[in-house]
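Worked example 2:
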Amino acid sequence: MSAIHAPDFSLPATGGSTITLSALRGRKVVIYFYPKDNTPGCTNETRDFGAL
């Protein structure tokens, strides 16, 4: 399977800092989008990321 690379982007992080995707290069990163908060499916999927 070929890797799919996301374009670099930056987002606000805790403590008033900013994090960029390029700063995480070489580390395992999950970019996760979900349709609705507090639903059982999304909650279970989110917990499953801990097993990666």
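DSSP finds one helix and two strands in the chain. The CA atoms of residues 8 and 25 lie 10 Å apart.
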